[in-house]
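input
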Amino acid sequence: MVKAMLAESGGTPDALKDRSVLSVAGRIKAAVLILTGARDARTDAAQAQKLAEQITKNGGNAKAIIYPDFGRKIPIEARNKDIDPFIDRVLGNRDANEIGHQAAQPAKD
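output
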């Protein structure tokens, strides 16, 4: 994992930091669901947890889910068990058509 990151970024600490969402985690205020596989050779699952903690610590709402049996390709069936309830909670159980319709309505003067 480290070799791949070094090759892609040029290897300097500044280049690695610039690529990390952790450097801006404190500014994220949206609801965030972070999904990662524990066997992913390019992503450290501990970083996902740290990201969720930093977002939450700074007033955001984040949850990290780490799938212990998967790497980079988490099966959609496994992901949907976590994604669907998250979306329902964030959107307040409104369906996508209702949300799109509300966004398309003109503002009242």
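quick obs: The two ends are 55 Å apart (CA to CA).
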